[in-house]
Amino acid sequence: MSPHSTTRHYTPHATLAALGLKLQSLKLFSAVEELVHIPQKIIKHKPVEKLYDAFISILAGAHGLSEVNTRLRSDPALQRAFGRQSCAEQSAVQRTLDACTAENVTQMRQALDTIFRAHSQAFRHRYRAEFLLLDVDMTGMPCGPKAELSAKGYFADAGIRYGRQLGRVVATRYEEIVTDLIFSGGVQLNRALRPLVTAAEQTLESSYSRRQRTILRVDAGGGSLDDVNWCLARGYQVHCKDVSSRRAEAWAATVQEWFDDPHHPGRQLGWLVPEESLDYVRPVRRLAIRWHKRNGQTRHTILISTLEPGDVLRLLGRPERDVSEPELVALCYAEFYDKRGGAIEIEIKEDKQGFGMTKRRKKRGAAQAMVTLLNQLAHNALVWARRWLSELAPKLSRYGVLRLVRDLLHVSGIVEINCGYHQHRFNAKLRHERR
User: Fold this and answer.
1) How is residue 45 annotated by DSSP?
2) CB 199 within 8 A of CB 372
3) Domains of the chain by residue range
Protein backbone atom coordinates (compact mmCIF):
# COMPACT_ATOMS: atom_id res chain seq x y z
CA MET A 1 0.00 0.00 0.00
CA SER A 2 1.29 3.46 -0.89
CA PRO A 3 2.50 5.54 2.12
CA HIS A 4 -0.16 8.13 1.35
CA SER A 5 -2.92 5.87 0.01
CA THR A 6 -6.54 6.55 0.81
CA THR A 7 -9.19 3.94 1.47
CA ARG A 8 -12.94 4.54 1.53
CA HIS A 9 -15.25 2.78 3.99
CA TYR A 10 -18.98 2.91 4.49
CA THR A 11 -20.11 3.28 8.11
CA PRO A 12 -23.55 3.63 9.69
CA HIS A 13 -21.91 5.89 12.30
CA ALA A 14 -20.25 8.58 10.21
CA THR A 15 -21.05 11.37 12.66
CA LEU A 16 -19.79 9.27 15.56
CA ALA A 17 -16.57 8.76 13.60
CA ALA A 18 -16.19 12.53 13.41
CA LEU A 19 -16.71 12.73 17.16
CA GLY A 20 -14.07 10.02 17.57
CA LEU A 21 -11.51 12.19 15.81
CA LYS A 22 -12.37 15.06 18.15
CA LEU A 23 -12.04 12.88 21.25
CA GLN A 24 -8.72 11.56 19.93
CA SER A 25 -7.38 15.08 19.51
CA LEU A 26 -8.40 15.84 23.12
CA LYS A 27 -6.79 12.58 24.35
CA LEU A 28 -9.96 12.00 26.34
CA PHE A 29 -9.13 8.42 27.29
CA SER A 30 -5.45 9.04 28.10
CA ALA A 31 -6.16 9.46 31.84
CA VAL A 32 -7.75 5.99 31.88
CA GLU A 33 -4.73 4.55 30.06
CA GLU A 34 -2.36 6.07 32.60
CA LEU A 35 -4.24 5.29 35.82
CA VAL A 36 -6.17 2.04 35.29
CA HIS A 37 -4.07 -1.13 35.50
CA ILE A 38 -6.17 -4.30 35.28
CA PRO A 39 -4.33 -7.50 36.32
CA GLN A 40 -4.92 -9.49 33.14
CA LYS A 41 -2.62 -11.25 30.71
CA ILE A 42 -2.13 -9.41 27.41
CA ILE A 43 -2.55 -11.58 24.31
CA LYS A 44 -3.63 -9.24 21.51
CA HIS A 45 -5.29 -6.22 23.11
CA LYS A 46 -4.37 -4.44 26.32
CA PRO A 47 -7.07 -4.46 29.03
CA VAL A 48 -7.47 -0.68 28.82
CA GLU A 49 -7.96 -0.97 25.05
CA LYS A 50 -10.85 -3.34 25.69
CA LEU A 51 -12.35 -0.81 28.09
CA TYR A 52 -12.00 1.71 25.27
CA ASP A 53 -13.86 -0.66 22.91
CA ALA A 54 -16.69 -0.92 25.44
CA PHE A 55 -16.82 2.89 25.74
CA ILE A 56 -17.04 3.34 21.95
CA SER A 57 -19.76 0.70 21.74
CA ILE A 58 -21.85 2.52 24.36
CA LEU A 59 -21.58 5.72 22.30
CA ALA A 60 -22.61 3.68 19.25
CA GLY A 61 -25.83 2.73 21.02
CA ALA A 62 -24.96 -0.75 22.27
CA HIS A 63 -27.50 -1.72 24.94
CA GLY A 64 -25.55 -4.87 25.74
CA LEU A 65 -21.81 -5.56 25.67
CA SER A 66 -22.48 -8.44 23.30
CA GLU A 67 -23.17 -5.74 20.67
CA VAL A 68 -19.47 -4.84 20.59
CA ASN A 69 -19.17 -7.29 17.69
CA THR A 70 -22.01 -5.89 15.62
CA ARG A 71 -21.54 -2.18 16.30
CA LEU A 72 -17.77 -1.77 16.47
CA ARG A 73 -15.90 -4.91 15.48
CA SER A 74 -17.75 -5.00 12.14
CA ASP A 75 -17.07 -1.29 11.47
CA PRO A 76 -13.36 -0.69 10.64
CA ALA A 77 -13.99 2.97 9.80
CA LEU A 78 -15.36 3.63 13.28
CA GLN A 79 -12.41 1.81 14.82
CA ARG A 80 -9.91 3.95 12.88
CA ALA A 81 -11.74 7.16 13.79
CA PHE A 82 -11.26 6.39 17.48
CA GLY A 83 -7.62 5.41 16.97
CA ARG A 84 -8.12 1.62 17.04
CA GLN A 85 -6.66 -0.54 14.28
CA SER A 86 -8.79 -3.48 15.35
CA CYS A 87 -11.39 -4.30 17.97
CA ALA A 88 -11.45 -6.96 20.66
CA GLU A 89 -14.08 -9.66 20.47
CA GLN A 90 -17.04 -9.10 22.81
CA SER A 91 -16.19 -12.09 25.01
CA ALA A 92 -12.68 -10.69 25.54
CA VAL A 93 -14.19 -7.36 26.61
CA GLN A 94 -16.47 -9.21 29.02
CA ARG A 95 -13.54 -11.12 30.55
CA THR A 96 -11.61 -7.89 31.06
CA LEU A 97 -14.54 -6.34 32.94
CA ASP A 98 -14.84 -9.50 35.05
CA ALA A 99 -11.13 -9.22 35.90
CA CYS A 100 -11.57 -5.73 37.37
CA THR A 101 -11.02 -5.32 41.10
CA ALA A 102 -12.16 -2.75 43.64
CA GLU A 103 -8.76 -1.10 43.22
CA ASN A 104 -9.39 -0.77 39.47
CA VAL A 105 -12.73 0.88 40.19
CA THR A 106 -10.95 3.41 42.42
CA GLN A 107 -8.40 4.01 39.66
CA MET A 108 -11.20 4.51 37.14
CA ARG A 109 -12.90 7.05 39.39
CA GLN A 110 -9.63 8.97 39.67
CA ALA A 111 -9.29 8.93 35.88
CA LEU A 112 -12.85 10.17 35.38
CA ASP A 113 -12.26 12.93 37.93
CA THR A 114 -9.21 14.02 35.90
CA ILE A 115 -11.23 14.01 32.67
CA PHE A 116 -14.14 15.84 34.32
CA ARG A 117 -11.90 18.60 35.65
CA ALA A 118 -10.30 19.05 32.24
CA HIS A 119 -13.48 19.33 30.17
CA SER A 120 -16.55 20.03 32.29
CA GLN A 121 -18.32 23.33 32.75
CA ALA A 122 -19.47 22.45 36.26
CA PHE A 123 -15.86 22.33 37.46
CA ARG A 124 -15.38 25.85 36.07
CA HIS A 125 -18.62 27.17 37.51
CA ARG A 126 -18.49 30.81 38.64
CA TYR A 127 -19.61 30.46 42.22
CA ARG A 128 -19.45 34.16 43.00
CA ALA A 129 -21.86 34.98 40.18
CA GLU A 130 -24.48 32.29 40.86
CA PHE A 131 -25.26 29.13 42.76
CA LEU A 132 -24.22 25.69 41.51
CA LEU A 133 -27.27 23.42 41.57
CA LEU A 134 -26.67 19.72 42.26
CA ASP A 135 -29.56 17.26 42.05
CA VAL A 136 -29.23 13.96 43.93
CA ASP A 137 -31.38 10.90 43.29
CA MET A 138 -31.49 7.09 43.11
CA THR A 139 -32.79 4.69 40.48
CA GLY A 140 -33.23 0.93 40.38
CA MET A 141 -30.91 -1.35 38.38
CA PRO A 142 -32.62 -4.77 38.15
CA CYS A 143 -30.40 -7.87 38.13
CA GLY A 144 -30.46 -11.51 39.15
CA PRO A 145 -30.56 -12.60 42.80
CA LYS A 146 -27.06 -14.15 42.63
CA ALA A 147 -25.32 -10.98 41.43
CA GLU A 148 -23.02 -9.20 43.84
CA LEU A 149 -24.80 -6.40 45.78
CA SER A 150 -28.13 -7.76 44.59
CA ALA A 151 -30.87 -7.50 47.18
CA LYS A 152 -34.61 -7.07 47.33
CA GLY A 153 -35.64 -3.46 46.99
CA TYR A 154 -38.22 -1.16 45.46
CA PHE A 155 -38.03 -0.63 41.71
CA ALA A 156 -40.43 1.88 40.19
CA ASP A 157 -41.52 -0.22 37.22
CA ALA A 158 -41.36 -3.66 38.81
CA GLY A 159 -42.24 -3.16 42.47
CA ILE A 160 -40.26 -5.28 44.93
CA ARG A 161 -37.64 -7.42 43.21
CA TYR A 162 -33.91 -8.19 43.18
CA GLY A 163 -31.46 -5.62 41.90
CA ARG A 164 -28.98 -2.89 42.69
CA GLN A 165 -29.48 0.84 43.18
CA LEU A 166 -27.67 3.57 41.26
CA GLY A 167 -27.05 6.84 43.09
CA ARG A 168 -26.38 9.88 40.93
CA VAL A 169 -25.36 13.51 41.38
CA VAL A 170 -26.00 15.80 38.40
CA ALA A 171 -24.82 19.37 37.82
CA THR A 172 -28.27 20.40 36.61
CA ARG A 173 -27.48 23.53 34.63
CA TYR A 174 -24.79 21.76 32.61
CA GLU A 175 -26.50 18.31 32.49
CA GLU A 176 -23.20 16.69 33.49
CA ILE A 177 -22.96 13.64 35.74
CA VAL A 178 -20.72 14.52 38.67
CA THR A 179 -20.75 11.05 40.19
CA ASP A 180 -22.46 7.67 39.86
CA LEU A 181 -22.26 5.07 42.64
CA ILE A 182 -23.65 1.53 42.81
CA PHE A 183 -25.38 0.41 46.03
CA SER A 184 -27.14 -2.72 47.23
CA GLY A 185 -30.73 -3.15 46.10
CA GLY A 186 -32.14 -2.40 49.54
CA VAL A 187 -30.32 0.93 49.94
CA GLN A 188 -32.36 4.10 49.64
CA LEU A 189 -31.31 7.74 49.55
CA ASN A 190 -31.24 8.06 53.33
CA ARG A 191 -28.15 5.78 53.35
CA ALA A 192 -26.67 6.89 50.05
CA LEU A 193 -26.84 10.68 50.36
CA ARG A 194 -23.62 11.20 52.29
CA PRO A 195 -21.41 8.93 50.13
CA LEU A 196 -22.80 10.59 47.01
CA VAL A 197 -22.26 14.13 48.26
CA THR A 198 -18.77 13.25 49.51
CA ALA A 199 -17.84 11.76 46.12
CA ALA A 200 -19.19 14.86 44.36
CA GLU A 201 -17.11 17.07 46.65
CA GLN A 202 -13.99 15.18 45.64
CA THR A 203 -14.74 15.46 41.93
CA LEU A 204 -15.57 19.16 42.11
CA GLU A 205 -12.83 19.90 44.67
CA SER A 206 -15.44 21.77 46.71
CA SER A 207 -14.02 23.98 49.43
CA TYR A 208 -16.23 25.27 52.25
CA SER A 209 -16.68 28.59 50.45
CA ARG A 210 -17.78 26.77 47.29
CA ARG A 211 -20.19 24.58 49.25
CA GLN A 212 -21.81 27.74 50.59
CA ARG A 213 -22.66 28.59 46.97
CA THR A 214 -23.87 25.07 46.12
CA ILE A 215 -27.51 23.97 46.33
CA LEU A 216 -28.36 20.34 47.07
CA ARG A 217 -31.85 19.55 45.75
CA VAL A 218 -33.01 16.24 47.19
CA ASP A 219 -36.29 14.37 47.44
CA ALA A 220 -37.84 13.22 50.71
CA GLY A 221 -35.65 10.11 50.86
CA GLY A 222 -32.69 12.29 51.82
CA GLY A 223 -34.71 14.65 54.00
CA SER A 224 -34.11 13.10 57.43
CA LEU A 225 -33.12 15.44 60.24
CA ASP A 226 -29.64 13.89 60.50
CA ASP A 227 -28.97 14.07 56.76
CA VAL A 228 -30.18 17.65 56.43
CA ASN A 229 -28.10 18.74 59.42
CA TRP A 230 -25.07 16.94 57.97
CA CYS A 231 -25.43 18.91 54.73
CA LEU A 232 -26.03 22.16 56.62
CA ALA A 233 -22.96 21.62 58.79
CA ARG A 234 -20.84 21.20 55.68
CA GLY A 235 -22.02 24.59 54.45
CA TYR A 236 -24.41 23.55 51.67
CA GLN A 237 -27.60 25.32 50.69
CA VAL A 238 -30.42 22.78 50.93
CA HIS A 239 -33.76 22.56 49.11
CA CYS A 240 -35.50 19.30 50.00
CA LYS A 241 -38.59 17.69 51.49
CA ASP A 242 -38.80 16.35 55.02
CA VAL A 243 -38.88 12.57 55.18
CA SER A 244 -41.52 12.29 57.92
CA SER A 245 -45.17 12.59 56.85
CA ARG A 246 -46.29 12.57 60.50
CA ARG A 247 -44.05 15.50 61.36
CA ALA A 248 -45.27 17.27 58.22
CA GLU A 249 -48.90 16.83 59.30
CA ALA A 250 -48.12 18.18 62.77
CA TRP A 251 -46.22 21.17 61.44
CA ALA A 252 -48.91 21.91 58.84
CA ALA A 253 -51.36 22.53 61.69
CA THR A 254 -49.47 25.75 62.49
CA VAL A 255 -50.09 27.26 59.05
CA GLN A 256 -52.22 30.38 59.33
CA GLU A 257 -52.92 30.97 55.62
CA TRP A 258 -53.07 28.53 52.70
CA PHE A 259 -52.54 29.47 49.05
CA ASP A 260 -53.97 27.55 46.08
CA ASP A 261 -51.39 26.36 43.56
CA PRO A 262 -52.68 27.28 40.05
CA HIS A 263 -50.24 24.86 38.41
CA HIS A 264 -51.47 21.88 40.47
CA PRO A 265 -55.24 21.97 41.07
CA GLY A 266 -56.08 20.71 44.53
CA ARG A 267 -52.63 21.48 45.96
CA GLN A 268 -52.21 24.17 48.61
CA LEU A 269 -49.14 25.84 50.08
CA GLY A 270 -48.63 27.60 53.40
CA TRP A 271 -45.75 29.03 55.38
CA LEU A 272 -45.17 27.60 58.81
CA VAL A 273 -45.32 29.93 61.78
CA PRO A 274 -42.09 31.95 61.48
CA GLU A 275 -40.40 30.67 64.59
CA GLU A 276 -36.84 29.42 64.70
CA SER A 277 -36.59 25.64 64.69
CA LEU A 278 -34.08 24.29 67.16
CA ASP A 279 -33.93 21.00 65.24
CA TYR A 280 -31.63 22.35 62.51
CA VAL A 281 -28.07 23.60 62.92
CA ARG A 282 -28.77 26.55 60.62
CA PRO A 283 -31.90 28.66 60.01
CA VAL A 284 -34.25 27.18 57.43
CA ARG A 285 -37.55 28.18 55.83
CA ARG A 286 -40.34 25.63 55.94
CA LEU A 287 -43.22 25.50 53.49
CA ALA A 288 -46.14 23.16 54.12
CA ILE A 289 -47.77 21.49 51.12
CA ARG A 290 -51.02 19.57 51.22
CA TRP A 291 -53.13 17.84 48.59
CA HIS A 292 -56.00 15.38 48.38
CA LYS A 293 -55.51 11.81 47.23
CA ARG A 294 -58.02 9.99 45.06
CA ASN A 295 -59.42 8.19 48.09
CA GLY A 296 -60.20 11.53 49.73
CA GLN A 297 -57.38 11.48 52.26
CA THR A 298 -55.23 14.58 52.72
CA ARG A 299 -51.47 14.22 52.45
CA HIS A 300 -48.90 16.64 53.83
CA THR A 301 -45.22 17.31 53.21
CA ILE A 302 -42.80 19.99 54.33
CA LEU A 303 -40.38 21.72 51.99
CA ILE A 304 -37.18 22.73 53.79
CA SER A 305 -34.94 25.39 52.26
CA THR A 306 -32.02 27.58 53.30
CA LEU A 307 -32.45 29.81 50.24
CA GLU A 308 -33.54 33.41 50.58
CA PRO A 309 -36.68 34.44 48.61
CA GLY A 310 -34.59 36.68 46.35
CA ASP A 311 -32.30 33.76 45.51
CA VAL A 312 -35.23 31.54 44.49
CA LEU A 313 -36.73 34.28 42.33
CA ARG A 314 -33.39 34.83 40.55
CA LEU A 315 -32.94 31.09 39.99
CA LEU A 316 -36.35 30.97 38.31
CA GLY A 317 -35.81 34.20 36.37
CA ARG A 318 -38.63 36.03 38.15
CA PRO A 319 -38.69 39.77 38.95
CA GLU A 320 -37.30 40.55 42.40
CA ARG A 321 -40.23 42.84 43.16
CA ASP A 322 -42.27 39.67 43.86
CA VAL A 323 -40.23 39.11 47.03
CA SER A 324 -42.80 41.09 49.03
CA GLU A 325 -45.67 38.76 48.00
CA PRO A 326 -45.82 35.71 50.35
CA GLU A 327 -48.09 33.79 47.97
CA LEU A 328 -45.84 34.29 44.92
CA VAL A 329 -42.76 33.44 46.97
CA ALA A 330 -44.39 30.23 48.22
CA LEU A 331 -45.29 29.24 44.66
CA CYS A 332 -41.71 29.88 43.54
CA TYR A 333 -40.23 27.72 46.33
CA ALA A 334 -42.53 24.85 45.34
CA GLU A 335 -41.84 25.32 41.64
CA PHE A 336 -38.08 25.31 42.18
CA TYR A 337 -38.41 21.94 43.91
CA ASP A 338 -40.77 20.58 41.25
CA LYS A 339 -38.21 21.31 38.55
CA ARG A 340 -36.04 18.44 39.77
CA GLY A 341 -38.50 16.21 37.91
CA GLY A 342 -37.34 17.78 34.65
CA ALA A 343 -33.68 17.62 35.63
CA ILE A 344 -32.10 14.56 37.24
CA GLU A 345 -35.11 12.31 36.63
CA ILE A 346 -34.98 13.14 32.92
CA GLU A 347 -31.19 12.57 32.84
CA ILE A 348 -31.66 9.10 34.32
CA LYS A 349 -34.49 8.31 31.91
CA GLU A 350 -32.41 9.49 28.93
CA ASP A 351 -29.51 7.22 29.92
CA LYS A 352 -31.83 4.26 30.29
CA GLN A 353 -33.37 4.84 26.85
CA GLY A 354 -30.39 6.17 24.91
CA PHE A 355 -27.56 4.11 26.41
CA GLY A 356 -29.56 1.13 27.70
CA MET A 357 -28.00 1.70 31.12
CA THR A 358 -30.09 -0.91 32.96
CA LYS A 359 -29.49 -3.61 30.32
CA ARG A 360 -25.72 -3.95 30.84
CA ARG A 361 -25.61 -6.28 33.83
CA LYS A 362 -22.52 -7.91 35.31
CA LYS A 363 -22.53 -10.49 38.08
CA ARG A 364 -19.46 -9.12 39.86
CA GLY A 365 -19.84 -5.83 41.69
CA ALA A 366 -16.53 -4.37 40.45
CA ALA A 367 -17.42 -5.23 36.86
CA GLN A 368 -20.83 -3.54 37.20
CA ALA A 369 -19.20 -0.47 38.75
CA MET A 370 -16.74 -0.27 35.84
CA VAL A 371 -19.58 -0.51 33.29
CA THR A 372 -21.43 2.24 35.17
CA LEU A 373 -18.37 4.50 35.06
CA LEU A 374 -17.98 3.91 31.31
CA ASN A 375 -21.63 4.94 30.92
CA GLN A 376 -20.92 8.07 32.99
CA LEU A 377 -18.00 8.99 30.74
CA ALA A 378 -20.10 8.37 27.61
CA HIS A 379 -22.89 10.59 28.95
CA ASN A 380 -20.54 13.46 29.74
CA ALA A 381 -18.63 13.12 26.47
CA LEU A 382 -21.93 13.38 24.59
CA VAL A 383 -23.01 16.43 26.61
CA TRP A 384 -19.68 18.12 25.85
CA ALA A 385 -19.96 17.20 22.17
CA ARG A 386 -23.44 18.71 22.03
CA ARG A 387 -22.01 21.95 23.41
CA TRP A 388 -19.28 22.00 20.74
CA LEU A 389 -21.72 21.21 17.92
CA SER A 390 -24.50 23.57 19.05
CA GLU A 391 -22.23 26.53 18.28
CA LEU A 392 -22.69 25.63 14.60
CA ALA A 393 -26.14 24.01 14.85
CA PRO A 394 -28.10 25.62 17.73
CA LYS A 395 -30.95 23.16 17.23
CA LEU A 396 -28.79 20.40 18.74
CA SER A 397 -28.76 22.17 22.12
CA ARG A 398 -32.32 20.87 22.65
CA TYR A 399 -31.40 17.23 21.97
CA GLY A 400 -31.24 14.80 24.88
CA VAL A 401 -29.09 11.69 25.09
CA LEU A 402 -31.67 9.52 23.33
CA ARG A 403 -31.96 11.78 20.27
CA LEU A 404 -28.21 12.34 20.13
CA VAL A 405 -27.48 8.62 20.08
CA ARG A 406 -30.43 7.58 17.91
CA ASP A 407 -30.55 10.45 15.41
CA LEU A 408 -27.27 12.35 15.42
CA LEU A 409 -24.65 9.62 15.88
CA HIS A 410 -26.37 7.19 13.49
CA VAL A 411 -25.97 9.23 10.30
CA SER A 412 -24.46 6.94 7.67
CA GLY A 413 -21.71 8.03 5.29
CA ILE A 414 -18.40 7.31 3.63
CA VAL A 415 -15.19 7.75 5.62
CA GLU A 416 -11.95 8.31 3.72
CA ILE A 417 -8.99 7.04 5.70
CA ASN A 418 -5.61 8.55 4.93
CA CYS A 419 -2.84 6.16 5.99
CA GLY A 420 0.28 8.32 6.18
CA TYR A 421 3.58 6.46 6.40
CA HIS A 422 4.86 8.42 9.39
CA GLN A 423 1.49 8.84 11.08
CA HIS A 424 0.71 7.07 14.33
CA ARG A 425 -3.03 7.56 13.96
CA PHE A 426 -5.55 7.84 11.16
CA ASN A 427 -7.05 11.02 9.76
CA ALA A 428 -10.56 10.69 8.37
CA LYS A 429 -12.66 12.88 6.11
CA LEU A 430 -16.40 12.34 6.08
CA ARG A 431 -18.70 12.40 3.11
CA HIS A 432 -22.27 11.96 4.24
CA GLU A 433 -24.77 9.95 2.26
CA ARG A 434 -28.28 11.34 2.31
CA ARG A 435 -30.96 8.77 1.86
Assistant:
1) S
2) no
3) 6-106+364-432, 131-347
CB atoms within 10 A of CB 432: 12
Sign of CA dihedral 44, 49, 55, 60: negative
- Residue closest to 93 by CA, chosen among 147, 52, 43: 52
**Per-residue pLDDT reduced to its tens digit, 366-423:** 999 999 999 999 999 999 999 998 888 888 888 889 999 988 898 888 888 776 533 3
CA–CA gap between residue 54 and residue 32 (Å, rounded): 13
| C-alpha separations of 50 from 58, 61, 97, 109 in Å | 13, 17, 9, 17
For the ranges 7-11, 118-122, 212-216, the lowest mean pLDDT is seen at 7-11
Q: How far apart are CA 81 and CA 228, in angstroms?
A: 48
According to DSSP, the residues that pair with 301 across neighbouring strands are: 289
Determine the straight-line distance between the first and last CA of the chain, rounded to whole angstroms: 32
- The CB-based long-range contact list for 15-18 (8 Å cut-off, 24+ gap) reads 15/408, 15/409, 15/410, 15/411, 15/413, 15/430, 16/59, 16/60, 16/78, 16/81, 16/409, 16/410, 17/77, 17/78, 17/80, 17/81, 17/82, 17/415, 17/428, 17/430, 18/81, 18/428, 18/430
Phi–psi pair at 293, nearest 5 degrees: -80, 170
CATH number for the region 131-347 comes to 3.90.350.10
**The residue count for the chain:** 435
pTM of the full predicted structure? 0.91
